[in-house]
Amino acid sequence: MSTSHHAPAAVRLPTAAADAQRQSDQTTTMPAEGNKNVQVPAILVLEDGRVFHGVSFGAEGETFGEIVFHTGMTGYQEVLTDPSYHRQIVVMTAPHIGNTGVNDDDAESHRIWVSGYVVREPSRIVSNWRAQRTLEEELRRQGVVGIALSGTRALTRHLRDKGVMRAAISTVETDPDKLRERVLASPQMVGANLAGEVTTAEPYTVRPPDGVPVRFTVAAVDLGIKAMTPQRLAERGCEVRVLPAHTTAEQILALNPDGVFFSNGPGDPAAADAVVETMRGILDAGTPLLGICFGNQILGRALGLETYKLPFGHRGANHPVRETRTGRVYITSQNHGFAVRAPLDGPFDTPYGRAEVSYIGLNDGVVEGLRLLDRPALSTQFHPEAASGPHDAADVFDTFVEMMTAHRQAREAARA
Ligand SMILES: NC(=O)CC[C@H](N)C(=O)O
């Protein structure tokens, strides 16, 4: 089956072979390639004409997307299920993928979002006590078209030098020129407004774990939210009400939340005007605000700053950033292709008072966080919730909780 570039990959019915494999996969060590007798040829064609040959990994068919690379050594399941990768073909630079299989606990959302998957060498066996399925089985079950090829290093270096671009993987088209024509007709990531394609249809609530009392209510605007973010807030005593992307500022404020969170998500922040308006409504009200990744870009725009596309982005689990106030360095999990342009040399004026760049990426000087100095609002371009990645920056959630505490105390003092 083929996944088109704009529709989410449909759930693909398992093949008889995969079914048989599932039944025999009762142990946690399983052959990962046993369900495929013949290797099916596949091609990867880039917008600029570069062609890579490999074999099918996952579902057979044809798929399009922006091709990007991820440098994390672990966390493939979190990558696949992160909604921010919607419409992207992800290349894993780690050479051996699938070793720990797939389980029902590590997913960051209810499905795989990458539009295509490129690996060097799929693991031949799965060996992990938590594994429930093989990776290839999961890719097939969800209709995700992938390719295994020996040149992932050459491919990554090409994208680093030329920048990310559109691409396609196909097991049905054998003529690269014909496939390239379709790549050139597929949509660009610049200008793509995608939150509406990934957001929850209905609001839902994430409650603190047993034994943790509820201290705050947080409204979370789901622009493509990862499951771990409301979890990190819930662990700190927040009851998190997750809301569809189109929820207005009035509707959010009517819930009387202690704080408002704007999530990560796919697409170009420059195309998300409606969300920028929503955030301005929250800033006007003075309610404490936290943004992560896409949420950081939206905060930049709400403050009147511009966003721009990076040549090849940051996707991995070991990106160093420096906190400007303290000089402290954090190793962070990141996944972004756009960034905010802001003055790096100290506080600057915005319609909401003074703001500053709170973190700077140490690899390339990119803005990795913003903080308002006169209102309770902060955001990070990196992922303090990790999933996967280091937990260095989890104190961002503590700062948000401190902002909500101070805001509540100030409101109570004003009322008294
Ligand atoms: N993880 C994210 O929120 C990504 C934000 C945005 N889509 C980007 O690529 O920069």
Please give a quick description of this structure.
The protein is of the alpha/beta class and 416 residues long.
Write up what this structure looks like:
With 416 residues, the protein is of the alpha/beta class. Helix content is 25%, strand content 31%. It folds into two domains: 16-184, Carbamoyl-phosphate synthase small subunit, N-terminal domain (Glucose Oxidase, domain 1, 3-Layer(bba) Sandwich); 195-408, Class I glutamine amidotransferase (GATase) domain (Rossmann fold, 3-Layer(aba) Sandwich), CATH 3.40.50.880. The protein has eleven helices and 22 strands. α9 (273-285) links the parallel β15 (259-262) and β16. The N and C termini lie far apart (65 Å). Residues 84, 264-267, 293-294, 335-338 line the site of glutamine. The site of glutamine (GLN) has 11 residues, from β18.
The share of residues in helices is 10-25%
Highest CATH level, the class of the largest domain: Alpha Beta
Number of H/I helices: 11
DSSP strand (E) fraction? 25-35%
Corresponding CATH superfamily of the largest domain: Class I glutamine amidotransferase (GATase) domain
Termini gap: 65 Å
Instruction: Could you tell me the CATH topology label of the largest domain.
Output: Rossmann fold
Q: Which ions, cofactors or small ligands are bound in this entry? A: glutamine
> How many strands?
22
Major beta sheet, specifics?
Answer: 11 strands, mixed
Average pLDDT level: 93
- Domain module tally: 2
Biased composition (Polar residues): 21-30
Biased composition (Low complexity): 7-20
Subunit structure: Composed of two chains; the small (or glutamine) chain promotes the hydrolysis of glutamine to ammonia, which is used by the large (or ammonia) chain to synthesize carbamoyl phosphate. Tetramer of heterodimers (alpha,beta)4.
Pathway: Pyrimidine metabolism; UMP biosynthesis via de novo pathway; (S)-dihydroorotate from bicarbonate: step 1/3; Amino-acid biosynthesis; L-arginine biosynthesis; carbamoyl phosphate from bicarbonate: step 1/1
